[in-house]
């Protein structure tokens, strides 16, 4: 792709078609690969000028389709150019600063300095807005600062899970560990000057809209424990979806005499060597911790309530080779093209697997033919990995369709379960004792350490922050305990200039990562702020009828998605079972909705 991109010689696509054809993956298109390398080296070192002007949409589409060996439809092109890093190479920034001096007087409060809050800072700064970010932690990074359990890392491929405006050439693994994500976020916060805008160890307690001044009073408690009120013209909440550890409700847990640690509160000094460890939970964190500690511990007993679907490992070694890293750093567009490839196979291609086919003949286990094909593929992998352990196999197969809950990436989970000193227990835990756990059938499992891999609090979506809008209406009165609703997942009627990142029904649970969500929503928010300035207004809020109609569409679409399947209970749902986290549309649809705010949908004043 790079060679064709730089030379614009389309005959190369025909000549080297084999390298992109998956049917040649095994037999190898190595001779072609060598020839391409030689040609590219020639092009890059000959001293002749190469063509680095932006590709036309048509040319990009042609190259992209050749690369992934399937048609890339026209509707995806703007998203791909934006999200795969090509947009930053365009001469015009996406939001060129306009009327800078007026925007500087307009101050935005951002709550949270994780992946989303840093992105908000970068984009607000670029657009010329004044902003301050508050974070109760002592550093940037959010999730990736606080989660330090063994094996912590991404499930979304690293070469996509990053900002499109800062494509990272240095990922050590295709699914990198948390510390590298944190390093990357720190570098971005420093490189884009965001850190200077962050007030650390400062918790936002409340945000109250003042009708008279059309501003927000943001009450914070700073690092010295002092409360004060800061004023802002707009508030962006970037507090993430996960709001802290959920501890299991096990009678007697407090009496356990050993160490009980939640994965979200891990002590890096905890030494598990030779210990008997009981781990509760088999979700995303457990699946990372277990294989990371299994070789150190004397005994590992895993308590499972419900199993997860597991995506096969593509290969044992997922380290990025030195050569590939060199190419990412030095070869123009290599990183961008690789990001495109990574995104393509981890995003909307999955959507067909979450859509319920009402005619499907085996709705208890899958939701459509593509869903069943996926289920069979995942089953085949489990059978292969556990061929000699039918006892385990029958207990690790979920009874809900794939994608009902997050599909987890295999970091050697099945291989871990097969080990002699590992036991999978599916009986319910009845209570804890000073020395371990007792199951419902009265069996006592002794343990020195309990690992609580029991997940995170997702609700209420705006955490503990007390938010009041126009006329003193509390957000909790509108949303109740767990009924969050927003227009396009970000704006709420009655709460002018309040923007919720990762808000209701906006998570892309069929693919890609939170990074695309954050970037898309922030792009939209900056568009809203620009609209205010263009119209000489101070605040905007969505029309109630527009908000309601949007939410009706959300509900209608969700009825046809796997997350609403009767067999699924997940953190995507609220206490009444309504899906409140997942976005019911393809990424390309949601991304497109967020490109330009529609003035008719808002009340400006
Ligand atoms: C172990 C783990 C693995 C994950 N892997 C993936 C993955 O592979 N792909 C993916 O897409 N997502 C993944 N996620 C989800 C992940 O949380 C998001 O991708 C992303 O990091 C969220 O960033 P954020 O900035 O929105 O929220 P967070 O990272 O949660 O940051 C929120 C910040 O807000 C601050 N804050 C909250 N309330 C207040 C307050 N009242 N006052 C001041 N500060 C406040 C917090 O201190 C925190 O720093 C994973 C999550 C976990 C826990």
From TrEMBL:
InterPro entries: FAD-bind_Monooxygenase_sf (IPR051209), FAD/NAD-bd_sf (IPR036188), Flavin_mOase-like (IPR020946). Keywords: FAD, Flavoprotein, Oxidoreductase. One of its GO terms (molecular function) is N,N-dimethylaniline monooxygenase activity. The keyword Oxidoreductase applies. It comes from the Bacteria. Pfam families: FMO-like. Belongs to the FAD-binding monooxygenase family. This is NAD(P)/FAD-dependent oxidoreductase. It comes from Yinghuangia soli.
């Amino acid at each position: 792709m790079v060679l064709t991109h730089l030379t614009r010689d389309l005959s190369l696509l025909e000549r080297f078609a084999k390298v992109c054809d998956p049917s040649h993956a095994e037999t190898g298109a190595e001779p072609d690969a060598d020839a391409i390398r030689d040609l590219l080296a020639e092009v890059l070192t000959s001293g002749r000028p190469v063509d680095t002007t932006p590709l036309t949409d048509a040319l990009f589409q042609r190259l992209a389709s050749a690369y992934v060996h399937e048609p890339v439809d026209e509707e995806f092109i703007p998203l791909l150019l934006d999200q795969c890093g090509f947009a930053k190479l365009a001469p015009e920034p996406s939001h060129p600063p306009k009327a800078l001096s007026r925007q500087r007087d307009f101050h935005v409060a951002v709550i949270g300095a994780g992946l989303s809050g840093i992105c908000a800072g970068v984009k607000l700064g670029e657009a010329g807005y004044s902003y301050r970010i508050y974070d109760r932690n002592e550093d940037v990074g959010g999730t990736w600062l606080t989660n330090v359990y063994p094996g912590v890392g991404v499930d979304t491929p690293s070469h996509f899970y990053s900002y499109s405006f800062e494509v990272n050439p240095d990922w050590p693994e295709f699914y990198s560990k948390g510390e590298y994500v944190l390093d990357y976020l720190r570098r971005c916060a420093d490189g884009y000057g965001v850190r200077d805008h962050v007030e650390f160890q400062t918790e936002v307690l409340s945000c109250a809209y003042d009708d008279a001044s059309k501003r927000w009073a943001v009450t914070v408690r700073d690092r010295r424990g002092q409360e004060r009120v800061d004023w802002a013209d707009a508030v962006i909440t970037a507090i993430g979806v996960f709001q802290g550890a959920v501890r299991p409700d096990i009678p007697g847990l407090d009496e356990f005499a050993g160490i009980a640690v939640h994965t979200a509160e891990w002590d890096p000094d905890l030494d598990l060597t030779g210990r008997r460890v009981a781990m509760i939970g088999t979700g995303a964190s457990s699946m990372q911790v277990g294989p990371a500690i299994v070789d150190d511990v004397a005994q590992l007993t895993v308590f499972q309530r419900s199993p997860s679907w597991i995506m096969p490992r593509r290969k044992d070694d997922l380290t990025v080779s030195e050569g590939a890293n060199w190419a990412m750093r030095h070869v123009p567009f290599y990183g961008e093209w690789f990001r495109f490839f990574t995104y393509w196979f981890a995003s909307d291609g999955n959507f067909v697997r979450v859509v319920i086919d009402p005619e499907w003949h085996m709705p208890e286990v899958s939701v459509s033919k593509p869903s069943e094909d996926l289920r069979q593929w995942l089953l085949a992998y489990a059978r292969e990995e556990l061929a000699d352990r039918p006892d385990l196999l029958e207990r690790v197969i979920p009874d809900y369709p794939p994608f009902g809950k997050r599909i987890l990436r295999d970091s050697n989970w099945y291989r871990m379960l097969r080990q002699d000193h590992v036991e999978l227990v599916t009986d319910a835990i009845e209570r804890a004792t000073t020395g371990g756990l007792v199951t419902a059938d009265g069996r006592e499992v002794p343990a020195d350490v309990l690992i609580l891999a029991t997940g995170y609090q997702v609700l209420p979506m705006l955490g503990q922050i007390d938010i009041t809008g126009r006329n003193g209406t509390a957000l909790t009165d509108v949303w109740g305990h767990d009924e969050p609703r927003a227009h396009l997942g970000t704006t709420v009627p009655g709460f002018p200039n309040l923007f919720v990142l990762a808000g209701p029904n906006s998570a892309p649970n069929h693919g890609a990562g939170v990074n695309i969500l954050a970037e898309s929503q922030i792009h939209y928010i900056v568009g809203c702020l620009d609209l205010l300035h263009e119209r000489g207004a101070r605040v905007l809020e969505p029309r109630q009828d527009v908000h309601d109609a949007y939410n009706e569409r959300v509900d209608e679409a969700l009825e046809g998605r796997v997350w609403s399947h009767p067999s699924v209970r997940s953190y995507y749902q609220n206490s009444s079972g309504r899906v409140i986290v997942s976005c019911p549309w393809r990424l390309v649809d949601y991304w497109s909705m967020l490109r330009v705010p529609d003035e008719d949908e808002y009340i400006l004043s």
